[in-house]
Amino acid sequence: MFAAPVNRLITELARLPGIGQRTAQRLAFHILSASEEEALGLADAIREVKATVGHCDVCFNLATESTCRICQDERREAATICVVEQPSDVIPIERSGEFHGRYHVLGGALSPIDGVDPEDLKIAELYARVDAGGVREVVLATNPTTTGEATALHIAAALRERSPDVAVTRLASGLPVGADLEYADEVTLGKALVGRRAL
Ligand SMILES: [Zn+2]
To answer: What is the model's pLDDT at position 172?
Structure first.
């Protein structure tokens, strides 16, 4: 229907989460009518994040160096590790201001139906961090979804077995069930963190 380069842009935009075909078309026409500077600014920003942002060697959060800013911050308590599914989940927890420990980003949640098994996530790396010592509590802040709950239970059972001295906690209820952590407001999330319970 459109020139091949326009079709390509629409196809690429439609791959983004939450962007349907119609929105992709609207965005493509916006980009086409934008100034060269504005449009190429977007392209450059995408190229730059892909070239410069990787994952922290310790916690697998996003990082522009070998370790992330939180792992580099000596004031963050190393005795408490908050386990989340995605780097985007770190942001609302940080915004709540209620967590002063370190993080561990799994890279997803267990879902055998979708072929996501423990070895596909950074679970062994979490156990290695706990085994290294100095950790007193692991807060499981995976999403309050079926897969997030299953992941929390899986890790809790393994940690109870491997490291009985380490407290394993889960965020208090009150978070919208079935929703992703990143959509929780910071007050609710802060309360859920303060009221976390043993698993
Ligand atoms: Zn880190």
So the answer is: 78
For residue 127, how far is its CA from the centre of ligand 1 (angstroms)?
15
**Rounded to the nearest whole angstrom, what is the distance from the C-alpha of residue 27 to the centroid of ligand 1?**
35
Residue 82 makes CB contacts below 8 A (sequence gap 6+) with 93, 99, 101, 102, 103, 104, 139, 141
Q: How far is the CA of 60 from the centre of ligand 1 (A)?
A: 6
124-151 pLDDT, tens digit per residue, is: 999 999 999 999 999 999 998 999 999 9
Residue 90 CA to ligand 1 center (angstroms) comes to 11
From ligand 1's centre to the CA of 61, what distance in Å? 5
Handedness of CA 40, 46, 50, 56 (dihedral sign): positive
Compute, in angstroms, the gap from residue 143 CA to the centroid of ligand 1.
20
Full-model pTM: 0.84
Q: What is the pLDDT of residue 189?
A: 86
Tell me which DSSP letter residue 107 carries: S
Residue 60 and residue 28: Cα distance in Å, rounded? 33
Q: Which two tokens stand for residue 199?
A: 């698993």
Report the distance separating Cα 115 and Cα 124, nearest Å.
17
Segment 71-109, tens digit of pLDDT:
999 999 999 999 999 999 999 999 999 999 999 999 999
Distance 72 CA to ligand 1 centre (A): 7
